[in-house]
Amino acid sequence: MATIFATGGSGYMGRSLIGLLLQRGHSVRAVARKSSERKLPAGCKVIIGDVLDERSYTEHVAGCDVFVHLVGVAHPSPAKAAEFSRVDLVSIRAAVIAATKAGVSHLVYVSVAHPAPMMQDYIAVRSQGEEMIRAAGLNATILRPWYVLGPGHRWPVVLLPAYWLMERLPATRQAAQRLGLVSLPQMVTALVNAVENQAPGVRIMEVPEIRRAGFG
Question: Which of 24, 135, 179, 191 has a Cα at 20 to 30 A from 163?
């Protein structure tokens, strides 16, 4: 069983992921602000810190096998470009520094599907995060969902008929699959797969692979 360090563990995906990791016998440490610590599942070791400043939590990463980075601006939109730079970019930079200093064997990063005709600022920041991971020489799994359907995140359901049609037309099939929707359970399963099936180098999981992910 692995020892996992998580950032963003009190968020949309983080709570479900940590709960499942604990059920599967893993040990989880998660950094959270004092105001968010109660959102973390029981059994998780809480580290009070600031995800934008690796100095507040790096010492607790030592001894962990996997670093899972889930920090991100909630409900991304083109109007939040400044927040992407201030939160998403700064937090992944801190995570890479902390993981490198601690000698973590694997980093799991939730990026975003690209290229895409919209959300260019968001994609640019997540792409920079990917490059930071590569530049640091870390072994990593990078997941690239487009939109994760779940509680409070269901409006794209109305697009499902359009996706069904586009995935069946040769001219639009590839883009529709790459920018397809995934469910929260699919995403969490893919994240567990990334934690439990580490590989050397950088592995990319696009939407089709996220949908197919199993526990192995």
Answer: 191
